[in-house]
């Protein structure tokens, strides 16, 4: 179960070194699809800024960066104290490595043309918040765009908790909100340094069906093959859609 894992021992520096010290081709493909999904949506919809949320933000800034051109607030939600501390540090003084992720997003003019660049804007709009996506969504606030990367299947072995995380993520969004969610298919769990974290073994069909309990407006993509990021999964599944 999610509550049994050692989330406060999650080491963000080791996680970033292993996963995000350079832009892997799978991340480049994810950013290409997500960038187009958000940009196409918001291009047709001029006017006021929206509130975005990245659920289980952990030690990854690129989901938040992918929403940045359109948001005047971005909530970075996580349950791990160490990851929350990492996020607080990064929004006031980011590591250089994240610049290469931003440069990939800048292949679209909405990102490239952001006045003043991303970093001052990120520290202005980001709100780091401790929270548990498995708890009931009992607050009135809703977000108009959202991301959840490698979270629902990567926080527990329980299929019930997997479905609950997907449902709660989608329920935090307003109807019609564009979202992007990434998953490791058939994940067997993962190490961060010497600490083991659980995963739920789900297929692309199960991921898609879980999202479709809330919205039919979703498309899933298979990105990369087994072992490209680490051993013990079969592919990355990216889901882009509208709540
Ligand atoms: C595999 S990491 C993914 C991190 C990041 N989103 C990424 O793309 O690399 C899973 C994240 O979920 C967070 N997490 C675990 N349980 C959670 C919960 N119940 N609610 C919110 N976040 C949780 C962890 O602290 C960790 O940051």
Automatic annotation (TrEMBL):
Q: Name one GO molecular function term.
A: methyltransferase activity
Q: Does the keyword Cell inner membrane apply?
A: no
Q: Which GO terms describe its biological process?
A: methylation
Q: Which InterPro entries match?
A: NNMT_TEMT_trans, SAM-dependent_MTases_sf
> Which protein, by its recorded name, is this?
SCO2525 family SAM-dependent methyltransferase
- Keyword terms: Methyltransferase, S-adenosyl-L-methionine, Transferase
Taxonomically, the superkingdom here is Bacteria
């Amino acid at each position: 179960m999610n509550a049994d894992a050692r989330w406060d021992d999650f080491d963000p520096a080791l996680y970033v070194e292993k996963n995000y010290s350079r832009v892997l081709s799978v991340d480049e493909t994810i950013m290409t699809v997500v960038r187009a999904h958000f940009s196409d949506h918001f291009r047709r919809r001029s006017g006021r800024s929206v509130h975005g949320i990245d659920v289980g933000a952990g030690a990854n800034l690129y989901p938040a960066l992918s929403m940045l051109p359109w948001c005047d607030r971005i909530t970075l939600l996580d349950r791990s104290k160490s990851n929350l501390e990492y996020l607080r540090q990064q929004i006031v003084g980011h590591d250089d490595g994240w610049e290469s992720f931003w440069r990939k997003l800048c292949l679209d003019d909405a990102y490239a043309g952001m006045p003043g660049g991303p970093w001052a804007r990120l520290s202005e709009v980001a709100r780091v918040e401790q929270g548990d996506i498995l708890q009931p969504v009992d607050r009135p606030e809703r977000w108009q765009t959202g991301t959840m990367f490698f979270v629902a299947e990567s926080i527990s072995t329980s299929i019930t908790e997997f479905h609950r995380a997907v449902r709660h993520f989608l329920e935090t969004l307003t109807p019609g909100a564009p979202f992007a969610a990434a998953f490791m298919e058939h994940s067997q769990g993962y190490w961060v340094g010497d600490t083991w974290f659980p995963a739920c073994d789900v297929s692309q069909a199960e991921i898609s069906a879980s999202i479709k309990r809330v919205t039919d407006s979703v498309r899933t993509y298979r990105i990369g093959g087994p072992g490209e990021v680490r051993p013990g999964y079969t592919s990355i599944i990216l889901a882009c859609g509208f709540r």
